[in-house]
Each structure stands twice: as C-alpha cells, then as structure tokens.
Amino acid sequence: MSEELISVVDLASQIGKRKQTIFKVLRRLRIEPRKLRKSESRGQLVSYVTAQESRLVAGELRSQGPGPKTGDDVAAPPEALLEEHGVFYLLLLEPDHDPGRFKVGLTMSLSERLRTLRCSAPFTNVLRTWPCKILWEKTAIDCVTADCKQLHTEVFRTQSIEIILKRCEQFFNLMPKLHEPNNGSEHAAPSPLG
Question: Residue 83 carries which DSSP code?
Fold first, then answer.
C-alpha cells in the first residue's frame, strides 16, 4: 500500500484521547477508517486512517480547545455534538449464568459494539435500545443504575433486570423524542420480560 496508515488505537494514544473519541471525530468529519486484519492481533480487524486523515483529526481536536477534562475527554462539547445522537443500549452479558449482570451505554453503531463485546462476552443479548443524545449518556447511566453494584465502567449487577428496564423506559419517556439514527445500529425487539 503506497499511503502510510496509522491505527485508530495508536492515533488515540499519540493524541492522548480515548479511541471512542477518535471514532466520534472521524464520523463527524465523514472519514471512514479502513479495516484490515493485523496478524499480531490474532487476525482481528483493526481500523486505520491515513497520515493526512490523522492530521485532520488532530486539528479538529485542537480546535475544540483544551477545556476541563471529563470521562468524555471534553467538558463542553462543540456545537456539532449537541445534536449528535446514537443509541443507548441495555445488554445482558451472561443471561443464563449471571442474569443480573448488565451493561448500559451509548454507541453510534450497535452492531460494531456487539462485535467487539462478543469477543469477551459471547452470550451478550440486547435487551432494548433507545435513541439517545451523546449529552444524555452519563445522566441516563446514573439514573438507571442507582442502587446497582458497579463491576466495571458500564457494567453493573442488579437483583432485578426488570427494574433496570423499567428505569430506562421511564428515563427515555421523559426525554424529547428522537428519531432512530441511521448508522447501521440495530433496534432491539421489545423485551421478553414484559
């Protein structure tokens, strides 16, 4: 290949941002990373951008200014992100063996998120999804996981997944209605729990 490529993971490390932030910027800039198999990653697909595209991403992040840091890297997101949205998901990680362990969060591509999650949690089931603005994610997580035991960043344990589902429904019923993003994410069928 004649053009120099850099992996999104390496670019994130060089810039000092999370790879999720880099993917969000790539999407905003309408840059589609190339996916190639890398032998040292056991044949998994790795996302790459060109050197020129990496400079565009770095420039975009610099134009946002330093600002105070949060879990999403920038406390005051640029205006373009205020209306950007994806889907908030409620996933059961081990439905048969540990039915109280669940994951919640926001993604721009549910199918991509599931592909990566199923490497470590192959029995993951989508319980439900809701259209969600980026700015709502942390509030939604805090609301629906109250009184749950946090196991990892977005992984929790509950005594009743039905209560979590009900909290999600209540939260998103209070929020302004959004259209389902057209980005390859799949909307889950209504819950079998009722």
Answer: S
Are 183 and 86 in contact, with CB atoms under 8 Å apart? yes
Burial classification of residue 3, based on how many CB atoms lie within 10 Å of its CB (0-12 exposed, 13-18 middle, 19 or more buried) = exposed
pLDDT, tens digit, for every residue of 18-68?
A: 888 899 989 888 899 988 876 555 667 888 888 888 888 888 887 765 544
> Per-residue pLDDT tens for 161-184?
999 999 999 999 999 988 765 544
pTM for the complete prediction?
0.56
Please name each of the domains of the chain with its CATH number: 5-77 (1.10.1660), 85-174 (no CATH)
The count of other CB atoms within 10 Å of the CB of residue 104 is: 21
Q: How many residues does the chain have?
A: 194
